[in-house]
Amino acid sequence: MLSEQSAATVRATLPAVGGALGEITERFYAGMFKARPELLRDLFNRGNQAAGTQREALAGSIAAFATHLLAHPDTRPDAMLGRIAHKHASLGITPDQYAIVHEHLFAAIAEVLGEAVTPEVAAAWEEVYWLMANALVAIEKRLYEEQGGPGWREWEVVERVTETADVVSFRLRPADGGPVQDFRPGQYVSVRVALDDGARQIRQYSLSGAPGPDERQFSVKRVHEDGTPEGEVSGHLHARVRAGDVLELSEAYGDLVLDAEPGTPLLLASAGIGVTPMTAMLAHLAGHGHDAPVTVVHGDRSPADHALRVDHEAYAAKLPDAAVHLFYEQDVPAGASTGYVDLTGVPVAAGTRAYLCGPLPFMRRVREQLLGKGVAPADIHYEVFGPDLWLAKQG
Question: What is the mean pLDDT of the chain?
Answer without folding.
Answer: 92
